[in-house]
From TrEMBL:
<dbReference type="InterPro" id="IPR050568">
    <property type="entry name" value="Transcr_DNA_Rep_Reg"/>
</dbReference>
<dbReference type="InterPro" id="IPR009072">
    <property type="entry name" value="Histone-fold"/>
</dbReference>
<dbReference type="GO" id="GO:0000978">
    <property type="term" value="F:RNA polymerase II cis-regulatory region sequence-specific DNA binding"/>
</dbReference>
<protein>
    <submittedName>
        <fullName>Nuclear transcription factor Y subunit C-2</fullName>
    </submittedName>
</protein>
<dbReference type="GO" id="GO:0000981">
    <property type="term" value="F:DNA-binding transcription factor activity, RNA polymerase II-specific"/>
</dbReference>
<dbReference type="GO" id="GO:0005634">
    <property type="term" value="C:nucleus"/>
</dbReference>
<dbReference type="Pfam" id="PF00125">
    <property type="entry name" value="Histone"/>
</dbReference>
<keyword id="KW-0238">DNA-binding</keyword>
<dbReference type="InterPro" id="IPR007125">
    <property type="entry name" value="H2A/H2B/H3"/>
</dbReference>
<keyword id="KW-0804">Transcription</keyword>
<keyword id="KW-0805">Transcription regulation</keyword>
<dbReference type="GO" id="GO:0046982">
    <property type="term" value="F:protein heterodimerization activity"/>
</dbReference>
<comment type="similarity">
    <text>Belongs to the NFYC/HAP5 subunit family.</text>
</comment>
<feature type="domain" description="Core Histone H2A/H2B/H3">
    <location>
        <begin position="49"/>
        <end position="125"/>
    </location>
</feature>
<keyword id="KW-0539">Nucleus</keyword>
């Protein structure tokens, strides 16, 4: 499938481009996958909000607070750091890593794989506008499978997993 949502199909020895929607079973399956991925992200964020609201113990962290504080102090403009700042930053980092992993895993599943690869992470970054700041950090590997941004019927970029916040 090309970036415009067309599938190449040989016609009398010549490859012709046919709209992706010309294959109803394929299109329907792709649409179902996108809807399922979007529901999973909505559930992920709902769970994150619920977990944040119910948190009473701020002493247990997945990321080392001393390391976070050290990174924060690497900026010469930072003089003092309140005790709560590394805790909040650690939680934000966890949520960032979790969302990027969810989106990357969705790409791996689209390609019928059960192993997360670098190109899955690159695809998640490419498909999500809010991750644009990472495009140069996680470069796309040339020659690997295509991670082009899915296109809508009109040919415009269509991000079925667009970034959003769940209203409380």
């Amino acid at each position: 499938m090309d970036p415009q949502g067309h599938v190449s199909q040989p016609v009398m020895g010549v490859a012709a481009t046919v709209p992706y929607q010309a294959y109803p079973p394929l299109y329907h399956h792709h649409q179902q996958q996108q809807e399922q991925q979007q529901q999973q992200l909505q559930m992920f964020w709902a769970d994150q909000y619920r977990e944040i609201e119910q948190t009473t113990d701020f002493k247990n962290h997945s990321l080392p607070l001393a390391r976070i504080k050290k990174i924060m102090k690497a900026d010469e403009d930072v003089r003092m750091i309140a005790a709560e700042a590394p805790v909040v930053f650690a939680r934000a980092c966890e949520m960032f890593i979790l969302e990027l992993t969810h989106r990357s895993w969705a790409h791996a599943e689209e390609n019928k794989r059960r192993t997360l690869q670098k190109n899955d992470i690159a695809a998640a970054i490419t498909r999500t506008d809010v991750f644009d700041f990472l495009v140069d950090i996680v470069p796309r590997e040339e020659g690997k499978e295509d991670i082009a941004v899915p296109r809508s019927i009109t040919g415009q970029p269509a991000d079925p997993l667009s970034y959003y916040y769940v209203q409380q």
